[in-house]
Design brief:
35% helix; 291 residues; 13 strands; single chain; two-stranded antiparallel sheet
């Protein structure tokens, strides 16, 4: 399975902060925002990842992540000239996907839960068509909402409905089989001129090959596209990390736990940041997991 992080867009809801810097490079806690979606793809077991950025931002992301080799990854980059919709990421990434299945994740989404990694790994193994992830919200009219049968098969996706039939918002993590590229090539721009990911998902719904996995109690899903939600995400991460002594979305730790790198490499990565508490944490994890 190949991975795509969509880190494009103009971030207008965060202006003026994002006029000169991509929102996916803004900090959540002590890490850049993009660490959080990258950690999800790594948790699935994906090592071949395409990062799609807005025009002109490639250099900053490359300075941060490089080619991914230090983490046992293969990271490549592509630019989205204009924000033309989430589904455009599948067209930009068509050559990257090739003959494989695909996991697409939005660069401003944060997921957390003790069993989250096991769930996404299972869903990737058992993928048959399209698997989406739902999360209960109080204001479903602001989101795409999933309606399912008792077995979790998606019956309909309603985009920002006035009268929602459920309160399960569709989150920004999408698992697709290889047919998704052809499906994306055949959708047309919406009234707002964008290639809508809901149109891609509904193509799978019509085929009876779409599934919604509900992330219930014990999980957190945060969309960090506004100043308020960005602050909330930072507070959430800081509270958990200070109380539990663990770090969410530490890429070096994830790479070590997934077997992408060994403990010696992990320790060296931490040592290169030894003046920060983040680097000290990485070194501690490397020592603990090498014992």
């Amino acid at each position: 399975m190949k991975g795509i992080v969509l880190a494009g867009g103009s971030g207008t809801r965060l202006h003026p902060i994002t006029i000169t810097v991509s929102k996916q490079l803004l900090p959540i806690g002590d890490k850049p925002m993009i660490y959080y979606p990258l950690s999800v793809l790594m948790a699935i077991g994906i090592q071949d990842i395409l990062v799609i950025v807005r025009s002109g931002d490639r250099g900053m992301f490359q300075s941060l992540l490089g080619d991914g080799g230090r983490l046992g990854l293969n990271i490549s980059y592509a630019e989205q000239e204009q924000p033309r919709g989430i589904a455009e990421a599948l067209l930009i990434g068509a050559d990257h996907i090739g003959a494989d299945d695909c996991a697409l994740i939005l660069g401003d989404n944060v997921f957390h839960g003790t069993t989250f990694a096991r769930i996404v790994q299972r869903e990737a193994r058992e993928l048959d068509g399209c698997t989406l992830f739902g999360y209960q919200v109080n204001d479903p009219h602001r989101y795409g909402v999933g309606v399912t049968d008792p077995g979790g098969r998606l019956l309909a996706i309603e985009e920002k409905p006035e009268r929602p039939r459920s309160n399960r918002a569709i989150t920004g993590l999408y698992l697709y089989d290889n047919e998704v590229v052809d499906i994306a090539k055949n959708i047309r721009p919406s009234a707002r001129g964008e290639l809508e990911i809901t149109d891609v998902n509904n193509a799978y719904v019509r085929r009876g090959r779409a599934k919604l996995v509900e992330l219930g109690r014990g999980f957190a899903w945060l969309d960090t596209g506004t100043p308020e939600s960005l602050l909330q995400a930072g507070q959430y991460v800081r509270t958990l990390e200070e109380r539990q002594g663990v770090r969410i979305a530490c890429l070096e730790e994830m790479a070590l736990r997934m077997g992408f790198i060994d403990a010696a490499n992990c320790h060296a990565l931490g040592e290169s940041m030894a003046h920060s508490s983040y680097g000290q944490y990485v070194m501690t994890i490397a020592r603990e997991l090498s014992a």
